[in-house]
Amino acid sequence: MTFTDFKTYFQANQGHYADLAWDDPHQLTAAEMRAVRASLQTFQRGESSEGHFLYARAKRLGDDEYTAAMRLFIKEEQTHAAVLGRFLDQQGIPRLRGHWLDTVFRGLRRVLSLEHTLRVLLTAEVVAAVYYRALFSATYSGLLQQLCRRIMLDEEMHLNFQCFTLRHLSAGRGGVGQWLRRHAYRALMAGAALAAYAASRPTLRAGGYGLLSFLAAIAAEYRRVEGMQRVGALIAVRGGQPVASEAAGPVGAWQWPAQQLRAAQ
Ligand SMILES: [Fe+2]
Ligand SMILES: [Fe+2]
After folding, report:
1. What is the pTM of this model?
2. For residue 242, how many other CB atoms are within 10 A of its CB?
């Protein structure tokens, strides 16, 4: 398995938002609006990063295939921002120009190395994995649910991509340094989860998550991504065939996950 496989996947995964039910007439009710409005604005803003710093750091790694995969990954995140923005426009919800949580994440990513930048990004991806599940359950809008499902599916592969890269970047490390790093990243994850809960509480609650169940869901997600970073562990799309193992080649690895994976779990 190589970065070329990720590049190939991201290339093949473009343009899959055009066939959604964009003509869905459902207007969010007042209760739905209260539940999802603010967090949708925040996440739309968060997905819209232009990724200049991330791309520049990826380029420094000196692997053209990784750089190409990263460019496509950034483009996919921008697509998420674009489709969420289109939904906001349809619902008459203004787009945000900035949000403190987004500013913190962007600020951190500007000053860090590629590895630390990816670690920060990974915490945001883990939060997103749980958030879109909650958002799916918090609305009766068929279009918004379709958006959630597709984004969740994309985010699955984002988690795999970051884990694969991080495994590559931290290969051969061990000992106390690695133990300390792992716990520092867990603390970062915990902080990000609390901040995300504070910023998205109405959506999370409407989607069935209280603070404790949200933190438990984040912890489960994070355990999973920690597991995928271990040498020899499978990097897999949830509930589907393994995407890759250390030994597996790219053949057959980039099938679309089965349809049932599109449902929230
Ligand atoms: Fe995204
Ligand atoms: Fe993502």
Report:
1. 0.86
2. 12
